[in-house]
User: Which sequence fits this backbone?
């Protein structure tokens, strides 16, 4: 019996070809001379996206922040937050979202930007520039996962006259159902038993990161009871299911102090059963991805209304 095919690669040879190229790119001594993990992100992004391509309300979010220390979190616009919580947007006369946005020339002002010139004691002009940036502070602390797979729920949202607003949906729930942590590959000169041992020594680091990430996720969402997890070293990976009870003592340690996630929380006490390490692309790996796919899909598939 043939192995399962990722939905995004079914009858799509170009997508399978991309996965081959992405693997070769990560292994390349020319383009990845330092053997960094970042070069494996394209392959994993492609794999996860292909896995859930036929589930309309399950998305892949790279570099997704699951936790910000509260005092370092960004301060949003209260008017925007209130507006986003309304059941229906009012038509502002613009006809919905614009399809094109004009480029502002050098002589025009940009909303949210202010430039103030002041004379210093020596008579030179000193410019104080304030931009409304959406990046966190340089020393902001948080927990960012390499990839999160998120199950979204929402309701169709239309303005009077049938105009679509902000993509046409009001999101009512976002459930993080899978966390993926990717580590750099081991020495590319290793083969057979040496390669297997080296991967076995490195992959626990990804597993430990996922345990801490899950603990932060459960603190963030008190109603969440479990999350799936994939730990990877290059294209080799294993997986497990992390329940809230598995990391309860870690959550207590995190909640008892200012959450500095660099601290060692004694992860040796977390007893989880991880699957055997497999390589992406082989039949057993595809079949295991099918099990994960079925778990993600069972959370609930949001039907797409006609015309959206």
Assistant:
């Amino acid at each position: 019996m043939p192995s399962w095919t990722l939905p995004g690669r079914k009858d799509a040879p170009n997508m399978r070809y991309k996965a081959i190229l992405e693997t070769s790119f990560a292994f390349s001594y020319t383009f990845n001379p330092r053997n960094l993990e970042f070069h494996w992100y394209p392959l994993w992004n492609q794999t996860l996206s292909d896995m859930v391509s036929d589930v309309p309300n399950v998305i892949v979010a790279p570099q997704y922040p699951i936790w910000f220390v509260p005092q370092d979190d960004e301060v949003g616009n209260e008017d925007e937050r209130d507006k986003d919580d309304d059941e229906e947007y009012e038509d502002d006369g613009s006809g919905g979202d614009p399809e094109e946005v004009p480029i502002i020339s050098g002589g025009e002002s940009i909303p949210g930007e202010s430039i103030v010139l002041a004379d210093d004691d020596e008579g030179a002009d000193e410019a104080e520039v304030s931009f409304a940036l959406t990046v966190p502070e340089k020393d902001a602390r948080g927990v960012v996962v390499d990839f999160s797979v998120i199950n979204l729920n929402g309701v169709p949202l239309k303005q009077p006259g049938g105009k679509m607003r902000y993509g046409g949906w009001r999101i009512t729930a976002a459930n993080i159902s899978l966390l993926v942590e990717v580590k750099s590959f081991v020495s590319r000169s290793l083969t057979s038993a040496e390669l297997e041992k080296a991967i076995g020594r490195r992959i626990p680091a990804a597993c430990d990161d996922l345990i801490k990430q899950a603990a932060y996720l459960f603190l963030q969402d008190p109603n969440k009871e479990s999350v799936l997890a994939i730990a990877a070293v290059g294209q080799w990976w294993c997986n497990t299911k992390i329940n809230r009870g598995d990391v309860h003592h870690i959550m207590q340690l995190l909640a008892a102090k200012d959450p500095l996630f660099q601290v060692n929380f004694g992860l040796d006490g977390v007893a989880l059963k991880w699957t055997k390490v497999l390589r992406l692309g082989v039949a057993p790996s595809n079949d295991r991805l099918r099990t994960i796919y079925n778990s993600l899909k069972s959370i609930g598939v949001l039907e797409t209304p006609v015309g959206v």
Notes: Strands lie at 58-68, 113-119, 125-131, 142-158, 164-183, 226-233, 236-243, 278-279. DSSP finds six helices and eight strands in the chain. Residues 7-73+138-298 form one domain. The chain has one domain: 7-73+138-298.
